[in-house]
Amino acid sequence: RKEFVDLYVNYVFNESIRKPFEVFMRGFLRGCPARKWKMFLPVELQTVLEGHTKIDWHLLEKNVTYRQYGMLDQTIRNFWTVFHQLPEEKKKMFLAFLSGSDRIPACGLERFKFSIVDPQVENPDELYPSANTCSLILFLPR
Question: Each residue of 9-30: b (16+ CB within 10 Å) or e?
Answer without folding.
Answer: eeeeeeeeeeeeeeeeeeeeee
